[in-house]
Write a structure and sequence with these properties.
This protein starts with a helix and ends in a 9-residue tail after the last helix. The protein is built from 6 helices and 6 strands. It is an alpha+beta fold. It has 2 domains: 82 residues; 102 residues, Roll (SH3 type barrels).
Length: 201
């Protein structure tokens, strides 16, 4: 009787462990693993369906294999995308003044008088460059003019700059401006009095 009682007591912990390892844990862990994939990724539902087809004895090992897949096919791409445009493949604005100094005969920029006449509603062109050499020149409509910087919204859709889209808010300074598109209702008196500017830029 005593031996049977001891055997019964020792078997209960083993039974609980078996239930957790082969019953509850694989399914619960898989529910966490599939979160590594995007919400619309079909692998979320596919992996949960495949779990039922795996023999119960093999499920813990199968789930661990899916953890490896999720880390490299799910988590890693999402981390790379989150860092893109912030840590890697970051874009920056290049100085039009600096380019003009290097190529004064071929690289024209607006005068300081024109820049000081800017106000909301006027569109200016800026140079968006990346470290790998890719660059795009795009138009930005000014929405706010501050003492040392300006704020605008991007009017173009970049072709090869990640995490930068049409309508994004852009903060820039006067030396970044390489061109100005004056609208008739946005032209200041200081600019319209200049005969060279009356024909546009």
């Amino acid at each position: 009787m005593i031996a049977e009682a001891i055997g019964a007591l020792t078997s209960w912990p083993l039974l609980v462990v078996a239930l957790v390892v082969f019953g509850f844990a694989p399914g619960a862990l898989l529910r966490l693993i599939v979160l590594a994939f995007e919400g619309d990724d079909p692998r979320r539902s596919e992996l949960r369906a495949e779990l039922n087809a795996v023999p119960r004895v093999e499920r813990p090992f199968w789930v661990i294999e899916q953890l490896e897949v999720a880390l490299f096919d799910g988590v890693w791409p999402r981390l790379v995308w989150a860092a893109t445009g912030r840590i890697i493949d970051r874009w920056h604005l290049s100085s039009g003044v600096e380019f003009n100094r290097q190529h004064p005969q071929s690289f024209w920029i607006p005068s300081e008088e024109e820049k000081q006449a800017l106000r909301p509603g006027v569109t200016v062109k800026l140079m968006f460059d990346m470290r790998d050499g890719w660059g795009e020149r795009m138009w930005v409509e000014i929405v706010a003019v501050k003492k040392r910087k300006l704020v605008g919204t991007l009017h173009n859709q970049p072709a090869g700059i990640p995490r930068l889209n049409h309508g994004d808010r852009i903060h820039f300074k006067y030396h970044h401006i390489i061109d100005i598109d004056w609208e008739d209702d946005a032209r200041c008196d200081q600019v319209s009095d200049d005969p060279d500017l009356s024909q546009g830029v």
